[in-house]
Amino acid sequence: MIGSLAFATDLALLASQGAVVEREAHRTVVRMPANPAFRWGNFLLVAAAGDPAARVAEHEAAFPDAGFVTVGVDAAHPVLDEGAWLTAGFAVERLAVLVADRVGATGAAAVRLLASDDDWAAETAIALEEDGGDAEHADFSRLRTAEKRRMVDAGRAVWLGVEADGALVATAGIADAGRGTARFQDVQTLAVLRRRGFAGALIAAGVRVASQRFGSARFVLVAERAGPAIGLYRRLGFREVETQLQLTRLDAPPGMDG
Question: Is the pTM of this model over 0.70?
Answer without folding.
Answer: yes
